[in-house]
Amino acid sequence: MKVYITRMIPEAGLHVLRQAGVEVIQYTGKTNIEKEELVQNCQQADALLSVGPNKLDAAFLQACSHLKGIALMSAGYDQVDIQVATDNNIPVSNTPDVLSNATADVAFLLMLAVSRNAFYMHKTIGKKEWSFFEPTANLGIELYGKTLGILGLGRIGMSLAQKCTAAYNMQLIYHNRNRNTNAERTFGARYVSFEQLLQQSDVLSVHANLTPATKNMFNKAAFDQMKPTAIFINTARGALHNEQDLTEALKNQTIWGAGLDVTNPEPMLPDNPLLQMRNVCVLPHIGSATQETRSKMAVVAANNIVAALQGKPMPQVLNN
Ligand code: DGY
């Protein structure tokens, strides 16, 4: 049995595959694999372990309907047409849970960095702008005791909520498809409408899946309702916010600042005006990028592949 892997992955995952006698074919290029090459390579394989943004759309899934399973090495699954995969009897799995803490760390890092203009301040030193200590300059905003609003209070949101309530005594409000009674019990979280979330959050952190309903949810109409001191954080998917509207909101000081680990498109182009703004911190989609987490993700994905190739249900299957 052969698996095709669209990136180099940590050794721990390869080890699981070898132990199970699965032959690995791996793409070793440094750019996204082209669609045609992906289809061709999947024709030689029995399963696909997909890392990164390759679109596994209807055309791909129909051309590769022989696959016994597709394991995504990500929590997000917006890159796959799950319905078409189901129609073609292809089980698809993801890697939830194992990346929650690392991704929430990055959201927390961005919150603090934006509240104190940290990335911009770092750059000023290199530009020889640090001349003397000015008591009224370089002032940030403190997060302690403020209101954290979360859109999409799932596993990553819960991990962020834990950090912010325990360490920063932040009050938690959230908006979700469903009520999260566990968060209400554990963190005293308050369920609010989307409008209330916009209006009441001091920090608004997005952890929702990208779907047609959430795409562009953070647009001019949304930013206009936020506090002028609010910080917008997105570690989920770049298409959840409208970049043009966000740039305008930051330029016009409609909101205080933004921290982004995801952009649209990715990679963000180096001449993007957001990169020059003092109230913005951008990271290159590194939410889950720790040695520990990436190894765990590779192992989870590999275990899903092994199960699919052995004709067993994938432990983290998204469809049935
Ligand atoms: C995820 O797990 O969804 C990360 O954003 C990597 O794609």
Automatic annotation (TrEMBL):
Domain of life: Bacteria
EC number: 1.1.1.-
GO molecular function, one term: oxidoreductase activity
Enzyme class: oxidoreductase
Domain D-isomer specific 2-hydroxyacid dehydrogenase catalytic: residue ranges: 4-319
SUPFAM superfamilies xrefs: Formate/glycerate dehydrogenase catalytic domain-like, NAD(P)-binding Rossmann-fold domains
InterPro entries in UniProt: D-isomer_2-hydroxyacid_DH, D-isomer_2_OHA_DH_cat_dom, D-isomer_DH_CS1, D-isomer_DH_NAD-bd, NAD(P)-bd_dom_sf
Coiled coil: none
Span of domain D-isomer specific 2-hydroxyacid dehydrogenase NAD-binding: 109-287
Gene3D superfamilies, per database record: NAD(P)-binding Rossmann-like Domain (3.40.50.720)
Alphabetical UniProt keywords: Oxidoreductase
PANTHER family membership: 2-HYDROXYACID DEHYDROGENASE-RELATED (PTHR10996), GLYOXYLATE_HYDROXYPYRUVATE REDUCTASE B (PTHR10996:SF283)
Family that this chain belongs to: Belongs to the D-isomer specific 2-hydroxyacid dehydrogenase family.
Name of the protein in question: 2-hydroxyacid dehydrogenase
Organism: Terrimonas rubra
